[in-house]
Write a structure and sequence with these properties.
403 residues, alpha+beta, 4-stranded antiparallel sheet, 4 helices
Length: 403
């Protein structure tokens, strides 16, 4: 017998109402569970991300000693020797440390997490990778003028996020101070060993300098990497016209370092590829071609060849080199070299690429270098991590040759 639902008793719920109530209850329960999981994931991921940031690129907490070095500029315009003031002993060593990984999975997980922290729209992803702008770090300094003593005071405080210039993945930075256009009289800070976030805290005095001449000068700071057995490598520079600074009191500046104008950026570029095979514990380095190499010979050309050094923990392990291309500033090499590198040693490995100019009657000249590792400059690190992320695939990239 059919019974009209509308004729049912008012107090008894219908089957449709019960079904809708059950669906709403289940939906609310699932929503609450998902919200709880999302909140838990955010807390876990946020904590992991925070810990990663705390362990990467932390500035050196040590403070160097405050020093005063002076240049007296009498009427004759000659400089006298500098005199340091004693103070506290500086902390030269950086706190950055790395630990080798013991397995392929640990290495891939570590490098993958580091790659996720990079911005996917970074400047290295431009169409012309060789023209990507490199982060050279920044420097903090202050400047002021004492009208009673006719003295310009420059204090170099610290730098942050300097690029690694040595194959060990660090640098030994120091700063040269000039008042351009005068290049004869310069002052220098102390060298901070193995430190990408150095603290100098040194004060320099340019004495006997009339104010009307000071405002005609340009304060020029050049950061260099000290090398004991070769020419110091330029890291970056900062210049500021003093007529644009209020010198009545000490003014403090943070300035991004720019590429040095000493010609280091005009050494040319090199196209090379890296191919990592984790099962074979090997890396294949392919030297493809170069362009716009710097002319090292009197005739306005060069005889380039390429040396490839495999380094492990600052020690030279193995060397390969290409053939020499006579009188060619845009040579094509197309040569490949295989290096055996166990996975657990990959984090301590550096590959140094050196483009040389061959000379028969004298010493061969260095045209430029590239340091490839997971802790080199931004462009080199990007290439290294791309190689790890794409095993068994050749990954090619243009690199700017450096001094």
């Amino acid at each position: 017998m059919y019974r009209d639902p509308e004729a049912a008793s008012p107090g008894a719920p219908t089957r449709d109402v019960l079904l809708v109530s059950a669906i709403i209850t289940v939906s609310l329960s699932v929503t609450i569970v998902l919200c709880g999981l999302c909140h838990w994931c955010q807390r876990k991921l946020g904590k992991r991300y925070k810990n990663s940031l705390e362990t990467v690129g932390t500035p050196d907490s040590g403070r160097g000693r405050s020093e005063k070095k002076a240049i007296k500029l009498p009427a004759g315009g000659k400089a006298v020797n500098t005199a340091p003031v004693p103070g506290q002993t500086p902390h030269d060593e950086s706190d950055r440390r790395t630990e080798p990984r013991s397995s392929v999975s640990d290495l891939v997980n570590s490098l993958t997490s580091e790659m996720l922290m990079l911005s996917p729209g970074s400047e290295e992803d431009e169409a012309h990778e060789g023209c990507s702008r490199e982060n050279l770090g920044r420097i903090q300094f202050s400047v002021g003028y004492n009208f009673q003593e006719s003295t310009l005071t420059v204090k170099v405080m610290k730098a942050q996020e300097l690029p690694a210039k040595d194959f060990s993945g660090t640098s030994d930075p120091f700063v040269k101070i000039y008042l351009l256009p005068d290049k004869k009289h310069k002052l220098e800070t102390k060298v901070k060993r193995k430190n990408l976030n150095p603290h100098w805290n040194e004060t320099f005095l340019f004495e006997g300098f009339p104010y009307e001449k000071v405002v005609q000068r340009i304060l020029y700071l050049q950061v260099l990497d000290y090398d004991r057995f070769s020419r110091n490598d330029p890291i970056g520079e900062v210049s500021i016209p003093l007529n644009k600074v209020d010198l009545t009191q000490m003014q403090t500046f943070w300035k991004d370092l720019k590429p040095c104008s000493d010609g280091s950026g005009s050494r040319g570029e090199l196209l090379l590829s890296l191919c990592y095979n984790p099962s074979a514990n090997s890396i294949i380095v392919s030297i493809i071609k170069a362009r716009n190499l710097k002319a090292m010979d009197i005739g306005g050309t060069s005889d380039p060849y390429v040396k490839v050094w495999l380094m492990y923990k600052d020690k030279r392990v193995e060397k390969k080199k290409t053939v020499t291309k006579k009188r060619n500033l845009n040579p094509i090499f197309n040569e490949s070299f295989a290096f055996d590198i166990p996975t657990e040693k990959l984090r301590e490995t550096t590959i140094i690429i050196t483009v040389m100019d061959k000379d028969k009657l004298s010493r061969n000249d260095v045209i430029g270098k590239i340091y490839l590792s997971w802790k080199s400059g931004p462009g080199e690190v990007k290439h290294w991590k791309d190689m790890i992320a794409r095993p068994r695939q050749p990954v090619a990239q243009w690199h700017q040759l450096k001094a």
